[in-house]
Amino acid sequence: MRLLLIAIAAWSALAQTGPEALAISGTVSDVTGAAIPGAEVSINRDGSRARAALTDGSGNFRLTGVAAGRYEVVARRDGFSPVRVPLTIADRSPAPLHITLQLTGVRQEVTVTSTAEEVSTHPADNLDTVTLDRDQLNNLPIYDLDYVAMVSQFLDPGSVATGGVTLVVNGMEQRNIGVTASAIQQVKINQNPYAADFSRPGRGRIEILTKPASQDFHGTFDFLFRDHVFNGRDAFALTKPATQRRIFEGSLLGPLGASKRNSFLISVDRRETDAQSVVFADTLSGSDRRNVPNPQRSTEASAGITHQFSDTHIGLWRGSYFHDSEENHGVGATVLPEAGINTADTEIEAYYNDSYAITPKLVNQMRLILGRELHPTTSGTDAPAIVVPGSFTGGGAQADRNQTEVHGILNDTFSWSHGRHELRWGINVPDVSRRGLIDHTNIGGTYTFSTLADYAAARPFSFIQQTGISSMNFVEVVLGGFVQDEFRLLPNVLVSAGMRYDWQNFFHDNNNVSPRLAVAWAPGKKRKTVLRAGGGIFYDRTGPLAIFDLIRYDGVHLRQVVLTNPTYPATIVPTDPISITRLDPTVHIPYSAQFSAAVERQIAKGTTLTATYWAMRGVSLFRSRDVNAPPPPDYRARPNPEYSVYRQIESSGHLQSDALEVTFRGSVTQRFNGMIQYTLGRTYNDVPGNYATSTRGSGINAFPANNYDLSGEWARADYDQRHRLNFLGTMHGARYVDFGLGLSANTGAPYTETTGRDDYHTGYANARPPGVPRNSLQGPGLLNMDLRWFHNFRFGKKKESPQGTVSVDAFNALNHVNYETYIGNLSSPFFGQAVSAKPPRRIQLALKFEF
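The structure assignment produced for this chain is given below.
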């Protein structure tokens, strides 16, 4: 196929050259002056594209075979707003052009004029987005340089897939970023929310743009330091936890050798944390309040080479390595030290990106990732696990396992321009993997007691243990395809219409077609207002955990037994019924329908106001149900005595979410620039848990309290917060008066009241009092303010001189106690109370050097 397209391209080039052929040349750079390699530069004539080329490693381009006439030169690159330059050519080649691209989301700060380009009706230029460019990433208080966590507070949890947040790097869905913090150019969410390129809506994905290659040397080095002596006091600690955090991070990019066609990028990150977790539990010996060491170490490194094959062809190779280890993971609140686990995760990936202008109107971009992962987990002790919900979790963690994975990810996208149309189509293969698991979890068993008195009397209400074949593997395949056309219906009206298809093995569901549509209209002559409307269907994925369960608990690999009201200690015998996991025969991939309407208004130079109404309806959401649970009225005996828990994974849940979102961004004064976003929302569902976490007991893994009566499950979603306010801003005052500010103020999320007993004899203590729905209790609100003071100084008088930055960050600067992990268990001594809180004030010192 590609050979045929190359032949067409060659014929097209020969057909358009002649004795009058001239050339258009120039450079493309960003606002800092750094060259942008791989940018697409095309020339349009009479509404049709005539020529196209890609910039080389130095940002240079050259278009030959151009006849005299009037043209429009268009420069584009992923993550940047396109630029259009009118050009008239007479009898000789024009002087070289110098084109500057701005990051998408920055263009909104210029005054909207009557030109079509500045109206920003393009679907990728919606203003109801959160965009952090490199300057903001440098100046805002961002904990541990974790940009993903920073913008995650703006995500809509209902838009997040079962498997977690969708991460898109340079236009491709990936498992991880692949480079360290200083090699990132921009982070954003909700750009082009209804793009057919992606399986999830914009409010459920994070998009990251990494720094482009350069023919000039550029480097960044960061050092961050925190120590407990500067911190506030933890609300649940008797003594301040002794903690220290050290981060060494940097990146280097520039030319490789004498050729201007080659460049490189290297990034490294080393993190050393000596932390302590705070235990706040109640045991037979009384209150247990202590600090437990929780050391963590991580190393991340990547190296890449960019090569310009020709004016129309550029390739990028990159390899990355990541290793992370942690001791006493999970310890804290009611979890005692002996129930902690030790983890050591290793990931290695190889990445290739190929951009090729096949013809002046047709561009292909292919990206491929191959990776290997290793995730061993070991328990601190082999003792059986002891759980008294709402009081303590002790004994052993019973979490020994080793999970491995070899995976591949592929994207192949074509872009074709013709007249008023920009057509995109391609395939996405976000996961082809072989996953393996050696599972020794719960081989010692887990005892669960309703109360401390029951524990003292040796009266557990359940005992769960598993034995059998522990080694298993499976192949997971997830793929999708899309087509999308963006066309200008009128000079001030742009329509984006697309269609997507998604498929996942293990599910015999082959009709997952999702249409997408977005319209933007800029009325009036001045066009300072943009009206947007859009909608689409978005299909979900299970994630690997549910598939592992289908294989582990198939009745052959692992033999899991659930005993209710057992003796203590308990003994499993071969005649005990086993638990199994199956798919509901009618199961299918869930989907959500999302639609929105927005008004965007340029209210002053560099200042915009946006009001957006969002609505989402989740259909056939994943959840689990024990179809062999003891039936009413006495809930005593299981219908099929051959099995204990018969977990059936169903697609029977629902979600309803509505929100009004108001966003103000821009320059409040000459020295202050920022963004404030307020959301008034309401989300109800009948699937316990938060899809954003996809942990045990949530989403696809969640069981209802009563498997025969689901009426009490429809309630506020676990993440439902009626009011959310987020603010990000920077202030540049007089010398030494530079500040960055981040503020979050949210009303509380709900939590559930339970009896703490196994009232339905299923082996789980999730029963609620009669008539009490899920999430009937109200948790506290959150108030958090992060503050950064920074000062930049140059080692020289030129703008290009190396620069240093010294900064001091105060996270939770007000030292406000934000309680979490509220106990709704009526049998717990902590009922209605919190057993943990978010971190107190933490002071961070940082040094940065850039050249």
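Interim note for the steering committee: Residues 1-20, 105-119, 690-696 have pLDDT under 50 and may be disordered. The two ends are 44 Å apart (CA to CA).
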